[in-house]
Each structure stands twice: as C-alpha cells, then as structure tokens.
Amino acid sequence: MDNNAADEAQPVVQKNGDSDHHASTVSAANGGTHPQGAAHACRVCGGGPLTRWVHLPAMPLTEELRPPSYSDSPYLADIDVYRCAVCGVSQTVGERDLSPYYVDYGYTVGQSPFAARFMQRLADTVRDRFGLQEGFKVVEIGSGDGAQLACFQRAGAEVFGVEPSAELCRESRARGVPVMEALFMPQTAALLPEEFQPADVLLMTYTFDHLPDPSGTLEAARRTLHPGRGLLVLEVHDLTRIVERREYCLFEHEHYTYWTAETLGCALARSGFRLLTTELLPEHERRGNSLLIAAAAMDAAHSPESEVQLAEWSALDYDKFQQEMDQGIAALDAFVEAEASQGRTVAGYGGGGRGVMTMAAMSSAWRISYVCDANTGLHGLLAPKSRVPVVAIDRLSEEPVDTLIVFSYGYMAEIREAVEKLPGAPKQIVSMLDILK
C-alpha cells in the first residue's frame, strides 16, 4: 500500500466542513480536480469522474482508543467519499498503510449472544442451502478471533483464516482455528495452504470494504474458489441504509468502498461472478446495516433461487445527503444539549466504530459521561477525539445516568434487556437512529 499518496500524507484538521463539497470532482482523465490537487481513477472500474458527496472533517481511526495517560494526539483527517460516474461505486481516494494499525486491532463481537446466533446461522445456512458436504473447505478473509470459522467447524467444514491482527490470531489459534497472520491482498491468495486451494467457500464479513483493491480481490477470489462449486459470501454495510438512516458513523478511514446491492452486483459480474442472493439470511437475523450476499462463478453449478431484482444505482439521492447528514449530527447535539439543560445526565452504549465515529463528529460529546461496552479490552480507554471513557456496563449502577444513547443499535434488544436489569438503570434508553431521523 502507498502511504505517501498526496491526498493522505498530511492529516487535515479543521472544525468546520467546507461549503463547496458538492462541487468537488476527481477526474480519471488529465485535468481533473481534487481538494488537494490529485487526480484519481475509480478503484473499482478504473473510470470516472469521481464526485465527492460526503465530507466529514477531522475524524479519527475507529480503533485508536488509548488510556488516559497516552499523551500523543490521535490521527485526525477529513473523510471524503466520492461516487464514480461510470460504475456508481462510492469510495475514498488514495491509500494509506494500515498494517501497523491492524497488528493491535482487537475488535470482536464474541460477547454478544445475537452475534453468536448470527454466525452459527450463517454457517448452517451456507452449508444447507448450497448442499455442501462434510469436510467442505472454508477460507475467511479478516477472520478475527476465529469465532465465525468455529461455527463452520461445527457445521462440518475444514477451515482456515487470514487475519492481520496478531492479538486476534492468538485468540483464533487458542480456539482451534488455524490462521495466517497477514493483511489480505490479491497476491496473498497464493500463500494459502495447498489443501485450501481450491476452497469451497471464501468468506468476507465486514472485510471486503476494508480492502483497497476490490477488483483485484474479486479476481483472486475467483482463482481461489473451486470453479464448479465454489461460493463467495460477502457481508458489507448497505449504503442504501446508510443514506436512508443518515448513519454517518459508518464512513471511516478504514473503509475504502461503500456498496449498494446494485453496485456490488455489477462489480461481481465484471469479475466473472453471478449474484445468487441478497437474502442469504432474513433481515431480522442479520446484524445492523448488513448487506449479506452469496455469489458464484458464472459457469458454476449454483444458480440463483429466483431472479435477483436490482434497482438502478443512481436511485439514491446523493446530492441531498450532506445536508441531511449535517442535520442528523445537529439533531444528536441538540438532543444531548436538551438533556443537559433539563439537568439530565447522558451516557452511551457501544465503544466500537459506531460510537467512536458518532461522538467524533459531535460538538456535545463532552457532555456524555461515559460509553458502556461488553468488550473488556476497551474498558479504561478513551474514545479518540471525543475522549469519552469506555467502561463496563456495571458503571450504569455505580454512576447512574438518566438517558442512555445506544450506538450499537443492531444489538438493541439484548442491550435493553441487560441494562434494564441493573439497579439504577437509566429512565430512558434510545437508539441513535431515532435521534438521527
């Protein structure tokens, strides 16, 4: 990866968004313009021009939580998202070397019963829906702590993971899931163990959008999978839902691309894949903002269960989103300020990316007393930029608040159940999505 790209080398720290973000265009041809003067082609189709439609100033990395004693300033840079006029894919431009960052990456949802159910349902559904036999081979890119692959093991598969985090690789091996410590790039596929070449299933859950070369990744996936029975299973954040919900917290430095079902289907087709389903699991069983698909090579034995109907990628109203996003951030600030003006205290729930990025864009985050999270590895740390402390759920009893804003809304039911059992539970528990509307 190139960490010297002109538009990424120097973090831009500013408090106010610029007023001409809709006019900012990056052209794939000579003479294109960019806020810092660089020209870029689409990272998916190689075309353009690219037009900027999202601007978030001075945003941190989602996982750069640090102890209170940590004195260095966090990485802060603008997040700008562009849309390609040719293929419609939304994306950032340039690349940065995140490999040192991922070495210490420790995000996991293993403590969540909902997530555990989702992972086992995914494994069982892939096996059953596509008739995979005992001993089928599964490779997961971005395999984390191995929890998802362990579910495939229970479903009768032989498994192997690729994961850049040394900490998560240790956890994966401890649970009996073999893993290669590496940040996946197209050439990484050739390093997989011989017994997993070819694989029956190549899985990427909330990983594909972290990879800077999506087209190269899809080509590598096609070479890795068995040509007759191989399945590609992808889970990404659904850009259509992001726009509908004003869910700006999912725009992150770690994400290179943002997908709708339509743009993903087109990208798959260009790389020789056929989209089999966008409904691998029903919505109520998926995680928050989950676009979960299965695909296979054009000439594979698998066929769509029914014709997959996709709308035009241009159907989203990109032009109005920046204004609506700004209004959503303002609504969050107004909500917190109104609580404070009434003498009510506020805490949050969810110290992962949603909470970090939501608070980073707010001017009122300093009024949030703390953020609860089930991940013990986050306890005692401060969220980057906002510096809100992340604590255990027990803090809600030890230091009660009046109102709890749930950033991890995908786990709302189990969070509400756990919180309401506590002595001194907040009087009001509200999803951030209800405030963003």
UniProtKB/TrEMBL annotation:
Keywords assigned by UniProt, alphabetized: Methyltransferase, Transferase, Ubiquinone
Q: CDD domains this protein is in?
A: AdoMet_MTases
InterPro entries tied to this protein: Methyltransf_Zn-bd_dom_put_sf, MeTrfase_14, SAM-dependent_MTases_sf
Q: Which residues form the C-methyltransferase domain?
A: 301-422
Q: Does the keyword Methyltransferase apply?
A: yes
**GO molecular-function annotation terms?**
methyltransferase activity
Check the record and name the Pfam families matching this protein: Methyltransf_14 (PF08484), Methyltransf_23 (PF13489)
User: Is Transferase included in the keywords of this UniProt record?
Assistant: yes
Q: Which GO biological process entries does UniProt record here?
A: methylation
Tell me the segments the record calls region Disordered: 1-35
What SUPFAM superfamilies does UniProt report for this protein, alphabetically?
A: S-adenosyl-L-methionine-dependent methyltransferases (SSF53335)
Record's protein name: Ubiquinone/menaquinone biosynthesis C-methylase UbiE
- What organism does this protein naturally occur in? Paenibacillus cellulosilyticus
